[in-house]
Amino acid sequence: MNPLAPMATSAASPAQLAARVQALVDFYRHVQTERMQGVPLLNPALLVEAVGFEWAEGEEGTEPVAEGVLITPWFMSLLRLPAVNLPHGNRVGRKAVRDFGSERFDFIGAHDPAIGYHETCALFSPMNGFSSQNLARETALASLALVRPQPEPDVMAPVAAEPLPPRRAFFMARRPDAGAAA
User: Fold this and answer.
1) Which domains does the chain have, with CATH numbers?
2) Is the pTM of this model over 0.70?
3) Sheet of strand 49-56: strand arrangement
4) What is the reported pLDDT for 153?
């Protein structure tokens, strides 16, 4: 499967998400090894990793967008990656306010022929405050938990207490009619 091939909105499958996100990770690993070597802001304890990517609705009827957090040794960002490799349309470096989960953030457009147009919203840069990949991953997951709506837990309706028989009320130090008056 070609992760850059167009797909219909209704066909945004888990396999296509995995392929598209893998293309993103491969691209940033390439950036790390080819463009970032020797740059002092790289945190040697960290690797490129995509965390929590899910399909979300695109803007105004466009293709779905893969949303999640990208961890690199030099930044951690919320990232929006369209389902298809789109041209940048002169949006590189421009800000756009986008929905992400239940919140809205300023995203900056970026483009590379390998993955097409995508948008990032910085969470951390540089990454020198992270001592391990696990800590960075936990932070990414916590960030996603804050912005993605969580399903409401099933709450049982309160059950009306039946009046206590007089003898039981006595042993519980309650008057039998106290429940009725409350």
Assistant:
1) 9-147 (3.30.1460.40)
2) yes
3) 49-56, 65-71, 76-82, 116-124, 103-112, 95-100
4) 72
